[in-house]
What does this fold into?
Amino acid sequence: MTKQIAAFTVNGAEREAIIEPHMLLIDVLRDQFALTGTKYACGTGDCGACTVLLDGKPSLSCLILAVTAIGKSILTIEGLAEGPELHPLQQSFVDEGAIQCGFCTPGMILSAKSLLDENPDPSLDEIRHALAGNLCRCTGYVAIFNAVQAAAAAMKTDSTGTEARP
Amino acid sequence: MRDALDKNPGFDPRSGGTSAPSTTGAPPATSRTIEGEFSCVGKPLPRPDVAAKATGAAVYGADLVLPGMLTGRILTSPYAHAKILSIDTSKAKALAGVAAVITHEDVPKLRFTRSVMAEGLPPFAYEGENQDQFILSDKARYVGDWIAAVAAVDTYTAEKALDLIEVEYEQLPAVFDPEEALKPGSPIIHEGWPGNVAGVIDHPFSRGDLDKALADSDYVVEFRGRNSRQKQAHLEPDVAVARWEPDGRLTVWSPNQNAHLAKKTMAQRILGINEGDIRWITTTVGGGFGARLSFGVEPVAVLLAKITGKPVKVFVTREEDFSGWSSRTEQRQTIRMGVTKGGTITAIEQRILSDAGAYFSHSGTISAVNMQATLGVMRSPVVSGKATIVYTNNPTSSGMRGYGNPEGSFVLQQAIDMAAEKCGMDPLEFRLKNAKGTGEPSMWEPVTLTSCALETCIRLGAERIGWKEKWHGWGASTGAAGPSPGGRYRRGVGMSIMTHASGAGGFLLEHSSAIIKLDEDGSVQLAVSPCEMGQGILGALSQIAAEGMGLRYEDVHVITGDTDVTLFDIGSHASRSTYAIGNAVLDAARQVRATVLERAAGILETSPRALDIRGGSVFVKADPTQTVAVAEIARGAIYDYGLEGRHITATGKHQALTHCPNFQAGFSEIEVDTETGVIKVLKYVVAHDIGRAINPLTVESCLQGGAYQGLGYALTEDLIIDEHTGKVLTDSFATYKMLSALDMPEVEVILVEEPDPSGPYGAKGVGETGITNVAPSIANALYDACRIRIHSLPMTPEKVLAALAAAPQSPDYNGG
It folds into this structure.
């Protein structure tokens, strides 16, 4: 098998990894970059726990060969917060009780980020659709919907400087 | 009490109120009863474990990397029942990078059960769970049974080595149906258990002459039902890391729900070493739901680490998890119930045929809890319960949220509706008339109920679902119209009630301890040993600790999950952690508080009784301007340059022969598409008797999650096993159908707060309960809508259509 040194942009930084053609992106992220916030839960693309953003799009790192991500910008959960401050989505997931065991949380938050990037003011139905590929076994989703709505409101307030939610 | 409630439903004079109902999309419920009374208890405070989970910093088992660590993988049986004639591991061992290959010849010859809870069973209650397996089996008893294991430098090499292990099997006839397994001539699965009878359990509170009572009853109803093999399906696949230390001790890292009893089981049942030679560390747990009250891959990791002398991490894939050793037990049950014309229950009989699968695991306790909970919610002078547990070649069952209660309630709660119909009574009134209340025996009968908010739960839930307006009645006999005539879509409402323990006192060792130490800055470290598997227990215990000492929530730092540091606890299950460990924490907190007040009294020149603590400051009650900071007292206790220094610490405990049962009512409104058979849940309302919601946000989230799993249990989730091969066909999230974000209906949670005198600040348990009332309330709603009953879970469209086609319509029924 051919090994190669491949360059990725991971959470804004240039990183290199030794990869082989069969390697999955999730394994490179977890084993070579120690970014263990990306979770393996099914390996078949059915649960969304391994979701990362590839050039801003939610992508299942358990199905993606690492070679196909060369040169692309990868955002994992570790890259979401800027410094010690939590991202508004992370903060709202904490505040709204949207996290129980936490295993789905990184993928769920990244899917929600992708949604809010494209649609800053989603309806409940749009949130449901955006998160339909991320299974949560603990919460019943309701607190997660609340968290995404709260984050949308907070991010709107941040960008406009006005209170968006009474 | 009943009169007062009748006049004024929705208000309960015992508590001063109930929390505001909250609905999907609405802000979470907050408790009105405690405003101004407490500083931490009753507040929706963020939990200490979740920020790390939101940033990816939390370390789960799979994230753990130790120097020199190897990867372990397990070879499983492709056959449901087979003799192992030979195993050739030579090729696997010769592969570069392989450190060890082990088979049944290498494992300790001690039989054990995966249920680590079995170590906590008192000798007087039951004979315990059968000790019937080795770590690696000498005979395949189900598809997925563990045959061999490999440790290698990486996963790729380990899995390649598994392929090189050559096993010669001789296939044996297999049996997958528990009724078939009992027949003479059926294949014998365990030599020590003739006829495949793994155990027979009599309900300890059976009493009276059943036959006579049924014969004397005005009506007798009978309902048979069967639950599905629901998977816990925690998103984190099972994993464990083990390392033998240079001093000869063993360290295990795993997501087990029961660290102290896991340690004991590993020491005594598997390794034959002392408990003190093992340190058990609980990693961040990616969901438990009862699966992790059993051993997963820990024993294999321990053995591979022992043989290789290196740390070993063993994990399973999702497919292996689905095909493995743990799902809800399939139980086939019959309920017979006698009633008087006036609607009083005269007798209840419950018979259970429980399919343990290939190994016994939790089968005994699950059947026992099923009977206690199912038979324990209603008053009846004559009670009879018996469970027969059978070995088959199906995958092994295990504890799953509700632990027998969702199994039994599905059957009993339908029988209750049938009895109410015979009597021509509203099933709500029938339940109110026959359900137990304060002062009566609990589900574990020697224990008397010290609180019971069931009536309030029923009244409030009924109000929120619109019971009076929406329930169709039984037809002419009750003067109501019956289901709406004809049409493709038919609506109905149904209800269910339940009781569950808050702990296991009486039938399991019920013993928890907590340590608190007060640091020099006035913050505390709280060392406790629940399993934080997502239920929010670390937050609730921190709130109880802070409240008990008069400190701020942020002053409490929790240390958990390390048996070398924490005192004994019997783990997180049975809705016990807030109640039982909470009591231990409160005991410790009150001792710390007393010590602080004593020292403060010296400084403020008054008596401890004249003082109080709030927000980390001690003050004189009569003159709040006189204060001394807790930090100053804590510092003085350590930096004492004389001889009076003593770091302020306390050890608290909870021990009980009781378990403070909680109660709950659930209501479903559904719409049935009679052309497709699809049941659409329009709304589910759950009203729970929580005693006191230590953290209402957490409690609500817990009940929402329970309802979610209950909806799956009712409608979609089932482990489907090939009846010819015994292979699990639903071995992925694509085939095992859990509800997605698109499928979740509206769920309304009502928290009824009537404090129990024995709970910490009046709190009772909730964790197991949210799942239980969903399926029976939907089943009863289905009857309200279409006059059909489904006898097995899940209630799929195929079953609904078959029942619609087969049902001889009742004379009252005027639908098409």
